[in-house]
Amino acid sequence: MRLIRSLLEHFVGVGTLRAYDHTGELHVFEGKVKEPVVTMRIHDGSLYTKIFLSPDIKAAEAYMDGKLTFEEGTDLHDFMSFFLLNERNLRTHPLQKHAERLSKVMKRVHQFNPRRKAAKNVAHHYDLSTEMYKLFLDDNMQYTCAYYQDPETETLEQAQRNKARHVCAKMRIRDGMHIAELGCGWGGFALYLAQMNDVKVTSVNLSKEQIAYARAEAKKLGVEDRVDFKLMDYRDLSGQFDRVISIGMMEHVGVGHYDEFFEQYKRLMKPDGAGFIHSIGTMSVPGTANPFLRKYIFPGGHAPSYSEFIGAFERARFWLTDNEVLRKHYHYTLMEWRRRFLNNWDKVAAIYDERFCRMWEFYLTGTAFGFLHGRNMVFHLVFTKNINTLPMCRDYIAEETERLRRREEELGIAL
Fold this sequence. Notes:
By secondary structure, the protein is α/β, with parallel strands linked by helices. It contains 18 helices and 11 strands. The relative contact order is 0.12.
């Protein structure tokens, strides 16, 4: 406990951390402000050195293995909030500063994302049981940040519909267009496009599980003639499109591949076409992926800062016509996913096991707080090749939104 004591003394600047070691002895670490209070118990004496050397991932693994638990009315949710209040103190510990420098050196290696590795990374997360995802996602299976206009009253389903409508409004979709979607998930957005407009949609994805589900849903909705779901790497798609859209895909591109990413947009967009990107990002200087997320959830994933990709964007010579930053929207999305996941814990455990459930609880809780107390956000970019492709003023987005609402009511799909 001596090693980890020095780390925790440095770490706790706000609140009180009560820690029981594996012998049952209580150790109390207090900040200048005594609240909030979190109580944890470490059940394995071998964890002290491991957590001292790699707190981000070893604490997560200890929780997954049941060797780190929370007591006296506190839980993982409370601990994550406590952690984010004090995270900056942890990062200034000499050993952690050294670990951060090493992580930055290895960043390009972790982010190297050729086609074969990209397929493997996608399968790691997105080819998990669709039945598991159904237990916490919205009815249309959209596994990206929703768009909350009123998080106190809106359901997850309404917020995800808001997002689909918001993207379509920005893109000014018209009948007869051919739209490319890079990374389609379970097809929720592509199916909305096909229901709302007389358009052709070509959606690509590397997940066999998701493509199979999306094709079945298209047939069920009677729009299979409008949507073509392809199992392929986005870099292999060819053709010319009126609109090229990606929602929650840029996070998987890799920092060394942004030139390749934007050049593919350039190849796919017609001269008067428009592009759209919805991606997790960070409002800070370039950092590295959390080691827990990199190992267990999103291998190869990265939330970029603007400075990491803007050079590649400029080299592609696009007109940036709209830029929007969504701040707390993903916090509310993740907290609702977490609520539904916890309510279905036993069902998820029946598909996988208790360790898997604790891993996902750690992931959903930690990332949710990252969008509330950290520097994470989601950004929307709209861009064109031609200066005249979209209206000069953003007023058109509100006008399009109302048109789409009326269309939803006409079709009987309003929420």
